[in-house]
Amino acid sequence: MKAIKKPKFIEVPFIGELALSGVRPILGIALGLLAGGVLIAVSGVNPFKAYKAMLQGAFGNRYAFSNVLVRSSPLLLGGIGVSLGIKAGVWNTGIEGYMYLGAVGAAVVGIPALGLPPVAHIILTLIVAMAFGAAWGLIPGYLRAYKGVNEVTSTIMLNYVAVFLTSWLVAEPQPLAEIGSFYPMSKLFQESAQLPILVRGTSLHPGAFIGLAVCVLLYFVLRYTPFGFRTRMLGFNPNAARYAGVNTRKQIMLLIIIGAMLGGLAGAIEVTGLKRRVYMNFVTGVGYESVAVALLAGGNPLGVIAAALFFSALKAGGATMSIQTNIGAPMTSVIIALCVIFVIGVGVSERRRLGKVQDNEKSEAVNEPKIKEEENVT
Fold first, then answer.
1. Cα–Cα distance between 289 and 293 in angstroms, integer?
2. Which among 44, 307, 315, 322 is least buried, having the fewest CB atoms inside 10 angstroms?
């Protein structure tokens, strides 16, 4: 009887499986970059030269790398917000809307002169932004947990409502709007409510480091706490979780609200650390990129860090690549999409392989008693 080789997983002490299993994300990214290189070559540009320019634009100096970190801030927080839901089988695709509502909440307390010291004013601004995001997340959370409404549909539709609501709030004659501005925008935030710049001559603010800390914290929460165990159990088998006493409705709603809070925090950091005010359409597609980050990471909070930095490096370096090689700016988005598609594709093939291994093990377990009976008879 031939022994069946079980698939091996990469294990790291105290960390466990890296971004699901094996080298799937790395292989998917490599295939995506290869396919992108083929498209670049077809357009008449040397792909090695293009990728070299991209690396220089992302890591060529401290200013370039600071830009990568600034771009990664909303992707880290949004990506981990989506990943929490993925662990429980919930697709919280409303990060875009949560960011807009978080920005509005930040503006409500960040624009008035409250007479608070900077640290207190910044903390209050971020807390209110998270509260606004959580309030917005209550809607899809309740609909999904208690009414069975698909969370993807409700969150995407609410994203449009949040975008247009924010655009209305920062347009004249609303109280938040800057009077006489050439473009709909809010009044400038008080200096005490603005995040400090960490590196002179750059836009680097603490947002990226807040995102990194949240990702690491939530990794340990998911892995070592009862809340994390309930979340993972819900994702593995909802029926078993319900039978084991997990309040699945409460857990689903809580996960969506936490994701909404993180999205609101991402929006607040974007306006207090970078924009300094709320613009109409101040983020475009960043929330949906957060979903791609979570997919690339396979729902692993530590994988979110790598995926967010990878996306940010592509976006930051893509501008340099476009300037030096005359490749259109959309090529960066194409490469990102290809990487995500290949990561998903490799994951599907891996799951099919695992399924075949499990089927073979089951069939062998069923046939083994029969073989023993035949041996005893002979």
1. 6
2. 44
pTM for the full predicted model: 0.85
Q: What is the CA radius of gyration of the chain?
A: 24
Report d(CA 61, CA 56) in Å as an integer: 8
Instruction: Over range 85-111, report the average pLDDT.
Output: 94
Conformational region of residue 204, where left means phi above 0, alpha means psi within -120 to 50, and beta covers everything else = beta
> What is the CB-side half-sphere exposure of residue 176 using CA atoms within 13 A?
24
Angle at which helices 286-297 and 248-270 pack, to 10 degrees? 120
- Predicted confidence (pLDDT) per residue in 210-269, tens digit: 999 999 999 999 999 999 999 999 988 888 889 888 999 999 999 999 999 999 999 999
Cα gap 82→290, rounded to integer Å? 7
The Cα–Cα gap between 51 and 61 comes to: 16
- Rounded to 5 degrees, φ, ψ at 177 are -75, 145
Strands (E), the chain: 11-12, 16-17
Indicate the residue type of 173.
Answer: P
What pLDDT, on the 0 to 100 scale, is given for residue 61? 87
Check if the beta carbon of residue 32 is closer than 8 Å to that of residue 343: yes
- Counted residue by residue, the chain has a size of 378
Positive or negative torsion for Cα 272, 274, 277, 281:
negative
Q: Report the alpha-carbon distance of residue 139 to residue 128 in Å, rounded.
A: 18
- Can you give the residue ranges of every domain in the chain? 1-45+332-378, 72-298
Q: How many CB atoms lie within 10 A of CB 326?
A: 11
Nearest residue to 27 via CA among 354, 355, 339, 352: 339
Identity of the amino acid at 222? L
Q: What are the Cα distances from residue 4, in Å, to 7, 21, 24, 357?
A: 10, 19, 22, 8
Q: Which amino acid is at 171?
A: A
Query: Mean pLDDT for the chain?
Result: 86
| Exposed/middle/buried for residue 366 (C-beta within 10 Å: 0-12, 13-18, 19+) | exposed
